[in-house]
Amino acid sequence: MVCVAAMGHSTATGIHILLFARLREQAGWAERWWPLATTADERVTPRLLWQALALPGNLEAVRVTINQRFASADTLLQPGDELAFLPPISGG
User: Fold this and answer.
1) DSSP secondary structure, 47-71, as one string
2) How far is 72 from 37, CA to CA, in rounded Å?
3) Sheet of strand 69-71: strand arrangement
4) What's the rounded Cα separation, in Å, for the pair 46 and 77?
5) pLDDT in tens, 11-31
6) What is the C-alpha to C-alpha distance for residues 70 and 59, in angstroms, rounded to an integer?
7) What phi and psi values does residue 23 have, to the nearest 5 degrees?
8) Model-level pTM?
């Protein structure tokens, strides 16, 4: 298992994770750094990170973006990617 590290690391060797709106409030943080082992054949997806970070709620109700483009929760992440989780937004 990979652990979450503090911000300030090179984005070329890990994933920058962002939470928005209600997710940010429930988790108590807005952004994290997820390091990737450079020698291991590590397959990291948004779904794996959601589970590893024990984020609140159902991932199926959340929009996932990778590098500011909507993506599947099962998309393979690459070093340097920006991953964002966006909760459903209602308005009127």
Assistant:
1) HHHHHHTT-SS-GGGSEEEETTEEE
2) 23
3) 31-35, 14-19, 82-86, 63-66, 69-71
4) 7
5) 568 999 999 999 999 999 999
6) 14
7) -60, -45
8) 0.82
CA distance 27 to 87: 12
**Residues in CB range of 11: below 8 A, 6 or more apart:** 80
Cβ neighbours of residue 24 closer than 8 Å, sequence gap 6 or more: 30
Q: From residue 84, give the alpha-carbon distance in Å to each of 38, 41, 46, 70.
A: 22, 23, 9, 9
CA pair distance 63, 74, nearest whole angstrom: 12
Can you tell me which residue has the tokens 């990170």?
49
Tokens of 2: 């990979």
Helix, strand counts (H, E) of the chain: 2, 5
